[in-house]
Amino acid sequence: QVELVESGGGSVQAGGSLRLSCVASRGTRCWYDLAWYRQAPGKEREFVSRITSDGSTYVIDSVKNRFTMSADEARTTLFLEMDRLKPEDTAMYFCRRCGYWGQGTQVTVSS
Fold first, then answer.
1. Which residue, 1, 8, 86, 90, has fewest beta-carbon neighbours within 10 Å?
2. What is the pLDDT of residue 102?
3. Is a pLDDT exceeding 80 seen at residue 26?
4. Start-to-end Cα distance in the chain
5. Are 93 and 20 in contact (CB under 8 A)?
């Protein structure tokens, strides 16, 4: 079983930055399906970014050039650096690892 804990969310004004972290306390030897998702109120959960085993990253178009995903060398911690935040980025952000989800961390961006 994989246990994930996200942190780093908060409330910021548009144009601000946040850095989310996702620490795996169990299942650290599982290195696939490493990704961030988000869910805005009243909307379905959507994929945001993933990192592959070779370190390649992918982000959706709406956050391209603003969000950057990374991981520590051991791949036990995932990060999501979010810059130039917009009100439409407001959502609960979840990390995912090998099919397991964290509890989420709230990001609120005010205009």
1. 1
2. 94
3. no
4. 40
5. yes
Q: How many CB atoms lie within 10 A of CB 86?
A: 15
> CA-to-CA distance for 73 and 50, rounded, in angstroms?
16
DSSP string, 28-88: TT--SSEEEEEE-TTS--EEEEEE-TTS-EEE-GGGTTTEEEEE-TTSSEEEEEE-S--GG
Q: What's the whole-number average pLDDT of the chain?
A: 94
CB atoms within 10 A of CB 88: 12
pLDDT in tens, 83-99: 999 999 999 999 999 99
Structure tokens at 110: 């005010």
**pLDDT for the residue numbered 73:** 86
